[in-house]
Write a structure and sequence with these properties.
The chain is mainly beta. The protein has one domain. Helix content is 4%, strand content 40%. It has a three-stranded mixed sheet, with no helix packed on it. A three-stranded antiparallel sheet has the order 6-7-8, with no helix packed on it. A two-stranded antiparallel ribbon has the order 3-4. The protein starts with a strand and ends in a 17-residue tail after the last strand.
Length: 101
């Protein structure tokens, strides 16, 4: 993806996960990052346009209608930081990473 920004979030434990893949956020989208897997959780930051995020693990949460459809999957991109999978291009309607524990 030309011109995309690779966003590295979290600490050494997150970055050290060898099987973590980075996925692009929907185009022209500034995505809310929340403290948990749902829209009722606090927003801790807003991602800039054209970033890619790591998916450390995934978990069910609030259902969101987004750029890539409707999903209740939330992606943990760093410790205590979640984004709705409906705005992340994973190429799948299901889970692409392990469940958060």
């Amino acid at each position: 993806m030309a011109g995309a920004v690779l966003l590295v979030l979290g600490g050494a434990a997150d970055a050290a996960a060898a099987d973590v893949i980075y996925y692009p956020v929907a185009p022209d989208t500034r995505l809310n990052v929340r403290t948990g897997p749902g829209t009722s959780f606090q927003i801790v930051k807003i991602l800039p346009y054209d970033v890619q995020v790591p998916i450390i693990c995934q978990t069910p949460g609030t259902t969101v209608d987004g750029y890539y459809g409707t999903s209740n999957i939330w992606d943990r991109i760093a410790s205590g930081q979640y984004v709705s999978d409906a705005y992340v291009h994973t190429g799948s309607d299901g889970y692409v990473a392990g469940r958060c524990g």
